[in-house]
Give the backbone structure.
Amino acid sequence: MKAVFLDRDGTIGGTGGGVHPLDFSMYDFAPQAIKSLNEIEIKVFLFTNQTRVGRGFFTEDELLKGFKLMEEELANDSAFLDGIYYCPHKPDDKCECQKPKIGLLLQAQKMHNLNLNECYVVGDTGSSDMVAANRAGTKKVLVKTGWGESSLTSYREQWREVEPDYIADNLIEAVNWIVNDLNVTQE
């Protein structure tokens, strides 16, 4: 089973930094990008670090309400997520789920019988999203939205050992590349 894992902040919306879940808004193009994956029957999962829960900026209930609002907005555009995986822990909690660790990817792999080598991670942060993707063996797509540009320039040294499979201007371009890559690998 193949899937695409999408980071939230900076990839499907927001600014790259942690946004309160009730204030989060998706980029205008995000629902269509997700719908494009839904239409070719590729599972789409959100996977996101939400350390602000652990640090007390907002509650887990508020986070879940924010996810619900996002799912309702996607449904208005006939798009959906197949699952949401998130890490609510503080950075110093030493959990196994906070990116760049791969606990979230392993949870989804187990629940959905995924072959991570045939999956994709799309994110805007090299030092977390791309490193996690590399560790899990997925294909790596960096978007330039959110923190993507600075990941490629100011912070490139933090993840210099990892090369993205593709660098996209935004989620639409990333999804177009993934759809094309899937067609090539299925032929």
